[in-house]
Amino acid sequence: MPSNSLPLPITYTQPFKALYISLRLASIFLLIPTWTLWHALIKKPHPSWTLKESLISRLIRWLMPINAQCGLHPLSLDKTQEVPDSKLKETSFVWIEPPESSIIRGAALDRDGKVKPVRVPGYVWPKGGVIGEGEGEGLVGLFFHGGGYMMGNGSEYFPETQIAREIYKRSDVTQILSVDYRLLHESCHPGQLLDALAAYNHLILKGVSPSRILVIGACAGGHLALMLTRYLYDEKVLPMPSGLMLFSPWLDMSIDLKLLSGDTTAIRPNTDIDILATSHIPNLRFLGNQPRELLNSPLLSANLAPPGSYKSYPRTFISIGECEAFRRECEQLHQLMIAGDVDVTLDVQPDAVHDFWGFGDLVPSVKAREALAVNVVNWIKRHGKGKMVEP
Asked: Where is the Alpha/beta hydrolase fold-3 domain (predicted)?
């Protein structure tokens, strides 16, 4: 067990894992009728939500702890296998080669030498597109999916890549590279940073100028996007991207351990209504053998950076829902960026929960998703030419 870590819960081993999952799932049959009566007759989590939206939000929050408590990694793919072109409808598969050693330093180095750069899969919108070819001056997106570093993949079939799909279809972004970076069961830090660095370097090696790159991330992918940008800012191994787009980004890796120690001031807002349920377990698994103090650093907790940390940062778009648990952290990051004279936009959609664009129609609300899409298109258009679109 890493020296900085608490023991993993007993639910990581059988038969306790199976028992925990079974009880969690079986309890739904009792909870659904209870929630239905409560929200229909007494109080909904949010006044504007329908009964269906209220129930689905409660259900997602009830199921979400299973991954952290049991070490599951649903919807992850084998990163050593190439996906045949015949199985992809919208994208093309590419291999992203490890970054060369000359750009690996500082935070990207594993102090024990156990975490190595590896080749990882990527998926390019549009299908048949080749990064660096086509519209030479067009914007190129680098997308990192979410899932708390525990689940998901970068392919077109993971629901959250809906964000990348919509940006490609609606905006002036001409290509998007979605990265299937390593998850916690495959690597601890700095494996994820190395994969992100490899993908960014891949774009540059293919002839894409950093001035054309938008780094895009949702939830944990937003955390990874910020981690990559902080690394580039501090180490100066490659030029900075032209912009950052963060959708419900996970920012503060220190909060869950503070809560574990009884610090009630660390309680996130909206935890009683948001779909999100967080845990200290993935944070410590992420650290591996790195010192626990790293959780409080600007690299892993962007909202805790000291004043002046964002001077000369790229233009940034931050999207959050009014009802989400990460709202306070995102507002803190927004203020830090304003203080650093960053051209930053904080888009707060009413009635919306965590990652509402990525979850799609499962969560509130259609109106929020469409409004966000319009705001995203308009924000991107400021990087190039074209008429503004109207809501």
From this structure: 142-357
Same domain, residue pair 146 and 39: no
Same domain, 171 and 264: yes
Whether 169 and 228 map to the same domain: the answer is yes
Whether 204 and 104 map to the same domain: the answer is yes
Query: Total domain count for the chain?
Result: 2
Domain boundary among 19, 40, 70: 70
Q: Return the residue matching tokens 């009566």.
A: 37
* Domain match, 300 and 361 both: yes
Q: What Cα–Cα distance (Å) separates residue 261 from each residue in 248, 258, 265, 280? A: 26, 5, 11, 11
162 and 41, same structural domain?
A: no
pTM score of the predicted model: 0.95
Same domain, 225 and 261: yes
Cα 12 versus chain centre, distance: 24
Domain that holds residue 226: 85-381
Domain match, 259 and 374 both: yes
